Amino acid sequence: MSEQPIKGLVFDMDGLLFDSERVVQKSWNEVGRQMGFGERFGDHIYHTIGFNVVRREQYFKEHVSPDFPMEEFTENTRQIYHRIMEEDGVDRKPGAEELLKYAKEHGYRLALATSSRELHAQLLLKKYGLFDYFDGAVYGNMVSAGKPDPEIYLKACASIQVLPEFAIALEDAPSGIRSAAAAGMRPVMIPDLVEPGEAVLELVWRRFDTLYDVIDLLESDFQNS
């Protein structure tokens, strides 16, 4: 039995479209030193990639301290993150705009499903010229349950009026792959900071090195095989 044709692409943002997870890690290291959490606090990002702020707070309270000062940490991190972004900028991931442009020109519906908050995500997308490619978007502050819950991907598919079985999800993080798979989509993984384990790979429909490979996928005749 042939697979359903692809009608929509749903993108994660941090670590997939932008090399921004490393900026987050750098800001966490700096804030961690300031707040007395040690030199390598940024290593916690390996366990929280894809989490929204609610899930990250739960993680910190479980693994750092039950009294973890999330509000103070978030504000300090935000200031340092924006300072680093202003000073150094952030790179778009290889093939990001090329894939968005190709998909748009070939009639695919495009949505964003990011754990980042709306204001931050829109500023980043607009600054680097990617915002207008998207037909729909769901941000971390718009869902009650973050990844790996399927809510964000189900809402993203609804935002572009494409059923999950007709859409692929583009992700760099294990939590995002689990979210997309639970939503009934075809998860495509382009790993960033974290390599997938065996359990995650079982959920992955395709695994690629860059977003350029997704263009090749769409150009192939796999839908008719």
Automatic annotation (TrEMBL):
It comes from Mediterraneibacter gnavus (Ruminococcus gnavus). The lineage of its organism: Bacteria, Bacillati, Bacillota, Clostridia, Lachnospirales. InterPro entries: HAD-like_sf (IPR036412), HAD-SF_hydro_IA (IPR006439), HAD_2 (IPR041492), HAD_sf (IPR023214), PGP-like_dom2 (IPR023198). This is HAD family phosphatase. It comes from the Bacteria.
